[in-house]
Amino acid sequence: MEIIFTFDNMKNSFLFIAICLGAFACNFSKKANMQIKNNNEYPISLTFITNNIQQVYSKIEPNQKINDSYDWTKLDKTDGEFLIVVKNELNQQVDTFHHGQFLHGELGNYIDIETNQGQLKVVVSD
After folding, report:
1. What is the average per-residue pLDDT within 96-111?
2. Of 19, 71, 74, 89, which residue is 20 to 30 A from 4 by alpha carbon distance?
């Protein structure tokens, strides 16, 4: 049996290999757009925790809005709740909020958090 490589065969083989490598290289990350707004008259730090993942936002100034992403790609695939820890940077007082639930380790695409004088508003949406 004789195998002959022609330019067309090599081009198709190269294209096939490139597509396969591209598919394997795809990043299947899961990230939510996180927005935090500090409506307090003092700076805060905020820690956002979901099961085995946490992210800390330090020194959020009064009336400052932060836009970031929350990578939950490696989130345990179990049920859980959001845990949000807010620290007053002036007097070091810490408030912990249990907020909302998620199922099977699936979060939404958007997380909006607003702090206001000891109160917390959280909206999670797709």
Report:
1. 87
2. 19
